[in-house]
Amino acid sequence: MTSNVKALVLAAGLGTRLKPLTDRLPKCLVTIAGRPLLDYWVDTLFEAGVSEARVNTHAHAGQVRAFIQGVNDCGRLNVTECYEPTLLGSAGTVAANLHFADDATEIILVYADNLSDVNLSEMLAFHRSHDDPFTILLFRAPVPEACGIVELDGAGRVVSFEEKPRQPRGDLANGGIYIVSPDAYREMASSGAFDLGRDVLPRFVGRMRGWHYDGYHRDIGTHEALAEAEQRYRSTGRKRRPAVFLDRDGTLIEHVHYLSDPAQVRLVPGGAEAVRRIKDAGFACVVVTNQSAIGLGLITETDLESIHREMNRQLAEEGAVLDAIYHCPVTGSGGDRTLIEHPDRKPGPGMLLRAADEHHLDLGRSWMVGDMISDVRAGRNAGCRGSILVLSGPESRRHSEGGSPPFEVASDLPEAVDRILATVAAPHDTSLLMESHR
Ligand SMILES: [Mg+2]
To answer: Could you count the other beta carbons within 10 Å of the beta carbon of residue 237?
Structure first.
């Protein structure tokens, strides 16, 4: 039987201990190293081959909905929402989504309050290696009194479960990730209970295996935990994604000399689809554009914002979403385009380096695409894996002339994307995504 793994993501927690942050933000969208907590789960579930994730929402549901829309738009994972006007409790959420399990081979239940380095493919492999209908992720809790504590027998079967014990008999704790069979899921759903940990898990004692995970795994419930996670993820650079950096004028949109009016914005043919394909393949897509028109006083930052709003609108119309746009307002001398005149002005690598830092990108697996020598040089100066010169800009042919270029050349953006995607495995082969996480 082919597997169909689905995931129920419990993300509706109020995040009371993270106030005042959670006054304006749902807890699951609190950012760590520039990325929302839920975004890490999207990657983790995608990498485990999950076909569909359902996320429950409550507070600030509109923001979560918009996030989900973005994930679906870029095709990383199929995500659906289950809105709870009144919080149902974790067991109540399972009950409300009883039929979610109907066509699944396994269901992963995830508490999105946690930040975790876990590789769920490994946990799935363990789950499939035994006969019990339930696998629970266990971690060693620094404060067992605050957790659900289990005891295991020699076969790794859970033989006791106690929620927040006064006198813990060990420190192996419920990590808030379960893999269950559809039957076990239905049993949880029909329990009539409120809380899975307190009310339902004890009923699976003797029929549940523990999978001990000793990597990074912790609840992002407090400001202290959030600060610690922030520091760790910033310094380890975990979960870095490769990116495709795109020049704007002559590459993603038609070249207009000192473009100043949003009405002049036109995507190049196949531009939106190219962005979509980049994102579908697991790359971030970031525009990096020299905008000396600002330095020259021809347009203002506000004008530029309107232009980019229009560009994003045209992209969104075709289901394409950029991760970010960086611009450099500094004016160049107009002379040698291979000279770095300012760290941010291409061929300076500044915008790419900043994007890599702020969006956790892996430059060594990233690409730069542009229609000028300064673009491909910026890619090289930033340490990108490759740079491609596209011949769609007015000056690009001149840049490609003169001996064999030290970079690749493509006729336009869609062809450049063909080249890039030919270098990576199929989108669902996650080996490339995984290697830098190790
Ligand atoms: Mg250009």
So the answer is: 15
Task: State the greatest distance between any 2 C-alpha atoms of the chain, in Å, as a whole number.
Answer: 77
Q: Cβ-count burial of 90 within 10 angstroms (0-12 exposed, 13-18 middle, 19+ buried)?
A: buried
Same domain, residue pair 286 and 408? yes
Residues 378 and 317 in one domain: yes
Given a contact cutoff of 8 angstroms between Cβ atoms, the answer to whether 113 and 217 are in contact is no
> What is the whole-number distance in angstroms between the Cα of residue 374 and the centre of ligand 1?
9
**Non-local CB neighbours of 295 within 8 Å, separated by 6+ positions:** 329, 330, 331
Inter-residue contact 122 to 213 (CB < 8 Å): no
The Å distance, Cα 309 to ligand 1 centre, comes to 18
- For ligand 1, the distance from its centroid to the CA atom of residue 411, given in whole angstroms, is 14
229 and 362 inside one domain: no
126: alpha, beta or left? (left if phi > 0; alpha if psi -120 to 50)? alpha
Domain of 391, in residue numbers? 243-435
Residue 401 has pLDDT above 80, yes or no: no
- 123 vs 135: CA distance, rounded Å: 8
Reduced to 3 states (helix: H, G, I; strand: E, B; else coil), residue 12 is coil
Catalytic residue numbers, as ranges: 247, 249
Residues 201 and 208 sit within 8 Å (Cβ to Cβ): yes
| 206 three-state secondary structure | coil
Nearest Cα to Cα of residue 411 among 389, 394, 395, 378: 389
- The yes-or-no verdict on residue 37 having pLDDT over 80 is yes
Average pLDDT for 263-282 = 93
Could you tell me where the DSSP H helices lie in 168-241? 182-189, 223-236
Reported confidence tier of residue 237, pLDDT bands at 50, 70, 90: low
Please give the model's pTM, rounded to 2 decimal places: 0.58
- Shared domain check, 259 and 127: no
Closest among 326, 331, 332, 256 to 296, alpha carbons compared: 331
pLDDT of residue 405: 56
Does one domain contain both 229 and 297?
Answer: no
The rounded Å distance from CA 72 to ligand 1 centre is: 30
Number of domains in the chain: 2
